[in-house]
User: Fold DNA replication initiation control protein YabA from Bombilactobacillus folatiphilus.
Amino acid sequence: MEQQTDYYAKFAELQHVAQDLTQVLAEMKDNISQVLEENAELKIENEHLRSRLSEMDNKKELELPHARKTLEKLYEDGFHVCTVMYGAHRDGHEECAFCLDVIYGERGSK
Assistant:
């Protein structure tokens, strides 16, 4: 009789372990579904942002007058184009808010 109880206890223990494992697997499945959904949303958002950036780059090239394109080229070559430091080298090609304002700043007021 003791042997039957032993089998029953082992069976009950295995059943409990199986239920715990089933619960863990269900939680993992839910987490994976959430991650895959978020990944799909981020891919779509990334695609839209890349498209928008491409549109903005194309628009920037179209809207920039020739004189400002020349200033932009000088700036990209490492020179200041602002009135504060015109013609000076930009150390390490650091950004200059004054130069960027000269190149792009007044486009909205056309």
About this structure: The CA atoms of residues 20 and 62 lie 63 Å apart. Residues 1-63 form one domain. The chain has two domains: 1-63, 65-110.
